[in-house]
Specification:
This protein has about 400 residues and is an alpha+beta fold. The protein has 2 domains: about 85-180, no CATH class; about 185-390, MetI-like (MetI-like fold, Orthogonal Bundle), CATH 1.10.3720. The chain has helices at about 1-40, 45-55, 55-75, 75-80, 180-215, 220-235, 235-245, 255-265, 270-285, 290-295, 300-310, 315-335, 350, 360-365, 370-390, and strands at about 100, 105-120, 125-135, 140-150, 155-160. The strands form 2 sheets. Strands 1-2-3 form a 3-stranded antiparallel beta sheet, with no helix packed on it. The chain is elongated. The two termini are about 55 Å apart.
């Protein structure tokens, strides 16, 4: 009798579970079918967006990169100190250690100890020893150095920091002048990240224009433009950058130098796109819809920009995303060689100038942290570019 009751209960549980699973998966299929029906008449860009969302790595990279750009835009607020603030007693100070337990084993909110410098007689270098008697909690929205956000909004509120005038909070350590490296990396991102957008926009316009004209008209125009492209491509890139950047006056301001470097990178960055656009235009210019546009008395420029270029817009979007890391690395190279941004303005490349000395790297490896910022930004852009490349053909699986 007991066995019969147990079997009935088991069958009842199995039937109930089967109904729940059927209901769940039926609802999932219904939602999928509903989404598929909505996308039947969707345009190409909507399909690209939906497929891009399925590329999890690209989506995560997009959010991380957006956070990095926000950090650069609001560098005054995010950074505990300004890019020129110096702490004379903390030259080449190592990163501050964050603790949650004190010497007695008691737990606290994150805090740092005060530090004092001591001479290491073995290496004749100064090291920083923590003073466990002095504890400073790390606080959010702490008051610190006054600043003007974008030169307009006055404030002294910083995202994080410690309330101390005697001991600085050096999240990533300090440089040879005792300046907070994290704050300088945040400010340097304004140049290194946004110079990529400026350079890509200019090279994008030049590449589309000359590539489109060359591919559409052909003949002597095509021959002349292609020889110019080959001339630019035959010049070694780094020597050309050095020659052009040497023409920048040393007394120019940071903004003037920023725009000059943007133009320099753009002058040599449009040739590859122009070649691709030319090939695409040649393959499309004899299609029926182009012939129809000619019969309708459409102008040549209208045919190029309104009929031919939209045929491979997805590729152009991917090209922009992949070209930005190249611009970032180009600016880094110029600044690393001392031909880019001048002090007191900073970029990730100029922060790495001290890394040319192997002795400095051996004793103070945190000087290489700007290099990690460059690597992270370039990798994130490449991941996003991969997602856009896969989404560029939304009809493939």
């Amino acid at each position: 009798m007991a066995s019969t009751v147990s079997n009935q209960q088991s069958d009842h549980y199995v039937n109930r579970r089967a109904k729940e699973l059927h209901k769940r998966y039926s609802g999932t299929r219904a939602r999928r079918q509903e989404v598929a029906e909505k996308l039947i008449d969707a345009g190409q860009y909507r399909l690209m967006l939906e497929k891009f969302k399925k590329h999890k790595l690209a989506v995560v990279s997009f959010y991380i990169l957006s956070a990095i750009y926000l950090m650069a835009i609001f560098a005054n607020f995010v950074s505990p100190y300004s890019q020129v603030s110096r702490f004379g007693d903390y030259l080449y100070a190592s990163p501050s250690k964050i603790h949650i337990r004190d010497e007695q084993g008691n737990f606290h909110l994150p805090f740092v100890y005060g530090r004092a410098s001591e001479l290491d007689e073995a290496t004749f270098t100064y090291s920083f020893v923590e003073d466990t008697a002095v504890r400073y909690p790390i606080r959010l929205f702490v008051r610190g150095e006054p600043y003007k956000m974008w030169g307009v909004i006055s404030s002294d509120i910083h995202l994080f920091g410690i309330e101390s005038e005697d001991y600085p909070f050096l999240l990533l350590g300090s440089d040879h002048l005792g300046r907070d490296l994290f704050s300088r990396i945040a400010f340097a991102g304004r140049v290194s990240l946004f110079i990529g957008f400026g350079g890509v926009i200019i090279s994008f316009i030049l590449g589309i224009f000359f590539g489109g004209v060359s591919g559409y008209f052909g003949g002597t125009v095509d021959l002349l433009i292609q020889r110019i492209i080959e001339f630019f491509m035959s010049i070694p890139q780094i020597p050309l950058w050095m020659a052009l950047s040497a023409a920048i006056p040393r007394d120019w301001t940071g903004i003037q130098t920023f725009f000059a470097i943007t133009v320099i990178l753009s002058l040599v960055g449009w040739t590859g796109l122009a070649r691709v656009v030319r090939g695409k235009i040649i393959s499309l210019r004899e299609d029926d819809y182009v012939t129809a546009a000619k019969i309708s008395s459409a102008s040549d420029l209208a045919i190029i920009f309104r009929h031919l270029l939209p045929g491979f817009t997805s590729y152009l979007i991917v090209h922009i995303t992949i070209s930005i890391p190249g611009m970032i690395l180009g600016e880094t190279t110029l600044s690393f060689l001392g031909l880019g941004i001048n002090p007191p303005d900073v970029s990730w490349g100029s922060l790495l100038q001290q890394a040319q000395d192997m002795t400095v790297i051996a004793f103070y490896p945190w000087i290489l942290y700007p290099c990690l910022a460059i690597i992270l930004a370039v990798i994130l852009f490449n991941f996003i570019g991969d997602g856009l490349r896969d989404a560029a053909d939304p009809y493939t699986r």
